[in-house]
């Protein structure tokens, strides 16, 4: 019996933590991360290299290998339809971390796919594009004929703007932008509900980058899939993402809509990222950047991990770890706890008990002269 899951939530991550065990100490790459992704939403993950973005994404897809260990958390996926009895949860959610190997194989690519950071390394250099696309199709649909798989491969290349005569090309015969489009085509092969894109425009020039992003937006509108878009370039997310989460030292330090983050960044780290690139309009300013470097995740500073680099740190920041709590968006009241993601920030500047004076009117002064 098939039943429809009546929820707009597609993926729910609860208190996810991931460690890397080594002889030199345990690296706490992801620490107590929670968020929800809605159907059709583009969810952006931004932060400096080493903040835990890719580790989190690979943990969601069960792609991590030892010494990586998921030490805590749940990944709950809500398919549009499911067979009654397929999952042990009454709310219709599939616990991705509890799937056995056969279930996981069926889940990947059909429900969730991934576009890896380096397309040249992700594509097999000794197989042509046709073979790599049809391999995905026939592995998940054994009854599909060779003719049917070839027709679908042509269709997929057309979707991403590549002519069918490149179907028998090898990866080294394609440009960087075309290889990235091929990876997107493979990710779309089985019409998944969600695609994870790990820095898909890295090393591409700005013209090709924008072309691929516009292609992604068009495909999202046509096929209504959700996207987790990972990048260190916050300016890029401000163009395409619906919701953006800022990660630092394995934690989410701020999360909100792209407009709210752009107009009113609340965490000093978010403000630093926003002011790390010049504006196209307005008066000229000298950008100072964020002082210091990200911490060693084997020995994260006590309290707020960002406090050694923060111009607004005070005593509580050095001893107490801030929680990610809801705050008011522009023109809106503070959402009730547990009543939705809303705008959230992990910063003691917004804790009335620890900082009775409240946050400064603007964080810009720390990064712009």
Textual characterization of the structure:
There is one protein chain. With 369 residues, the chain is of the alpha/beta class. It folds into 2 domains: 240 residues, Rossmann fold, CATH 3.40.50.300; 103 residues, no CATH class. Helices cover 26% and strands 22% of the residues. Helix 5 packs across helix 6.
Q: What's the SSE blueprint?
A:
Blueprint: E1 2-4, E2 9-20, E3 27-38, E4 42-46, H1 53-60, E5 68-77, E6 81-83, E7 94-95, H2 101-107, E8 112-115, H3 119-122, H4 129-140, H5 146-159, H6 176-187, E9 194-198, H7 206-223, E10 226-231, H8 234-240, E11 243-248, E12 251-257, H9 258-263, H10 268-274, E13 325-327, E14 343-345
Parallel strand pairs: 4-10, 4-11, 8-9, 9-10
Antiparallel strand pairs: 1-6, 2-3, 2-5, 5-7, 11-12, 12-14, 13-14
Helix pairs in contact: 4-5, 5-6, 6-7
């Amino acid at each position: 019996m098939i039943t429809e899951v009546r929820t707009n939530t597609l993926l729910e991550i609860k208190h996810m933590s991931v460690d890397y065990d080594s002889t030199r100490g345990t690296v706490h790459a992801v620490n107590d991360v929670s968020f929800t992704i809605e159907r059709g939403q583009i969810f952006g993950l931004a932060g400096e290299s080493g903040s835990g973005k890719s580790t989190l994404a690979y943990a969601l897809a069960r792609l991590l290998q030892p010494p990586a260990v998921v030490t805590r958390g749940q990944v709950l996926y809500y398919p549009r339809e499911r067979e009654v009895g397929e999952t042990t949860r009454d709310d219709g959610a599939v616990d991705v971390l509890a799937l056995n190997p056969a279930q996981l194989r069926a889940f990947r690519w059909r429900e969730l796919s991934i576009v890896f950071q380096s397309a040249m390394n992700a594509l097999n250099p000794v197989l042509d594009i046709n073979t790599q696309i049809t391999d995905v199709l026939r592995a998940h649909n054994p009854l599909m004929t060779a003719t049917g798989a070839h027709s679908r491969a042509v269709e997929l290349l057309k979707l991403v703007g590549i002519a069918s005569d490149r179907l028998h090309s090898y990866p080294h015969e394609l440009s960087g932008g075309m290889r990235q489009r091929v990876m997107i085509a493979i990710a779309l092969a089985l019409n998944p509900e969600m695609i994870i894109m790990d820095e898909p425009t890295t090393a591409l020039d700005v013209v090709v980058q924008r072309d691929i992003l516009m292609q992604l937006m068009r495909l999202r509108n046509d096929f209504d899939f959700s996207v987790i878009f990972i990048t260190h370039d916050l300016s890029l997310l401000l163009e395409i993402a619906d919701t953006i989460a800022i990660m630092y030292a394995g934690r989410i330090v701020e999360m909100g809509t792209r407009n709210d983050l752009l107009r009113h960044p609340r965490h000093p780290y978010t403000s630093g990222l926003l002011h790390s690139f010049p504006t196209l309009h307005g008066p000229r300013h000298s950008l100072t950047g964020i002082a210091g470097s990200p911490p060693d995740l084997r020995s994260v500073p006590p309290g707020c991990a960002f406090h050694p680099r923060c111009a607004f740190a005070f005593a509580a920041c050095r001893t107490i770890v801030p929680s990610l709590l809801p705050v008011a968006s522009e023109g809106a009241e503070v959402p009730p706890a547990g009543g939705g993601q809303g705008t959230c920030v992990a910063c003691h500047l917004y804790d009335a008990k620890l900082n009775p004076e409240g946050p400064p009117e603007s964080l810009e002064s720390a990064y712009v002269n």
